[in-house]
Here is the input.
Amino acid sequence: MKIKSTKKKVAEWLGYVFCEISFLWFEKFDVPYRGKDWRWYHRIAYFIGGKFYSIGCYFYDAGMKD
Here is the structure.
């Protein structure tokens, strides 16, 4: 049973790390949501930040399952 609890802790930690990376990424690049301010590099920054957030959510979900 120790392996199961260790796996949950590692998955939750990875979820935390990837979500925090995405929050820092969005804070650093400050991607606007709509309007004329959208540029091609905003799309790339949003895509990368979104992927980090999705990976983080995946690991959080894996950590919550039994």
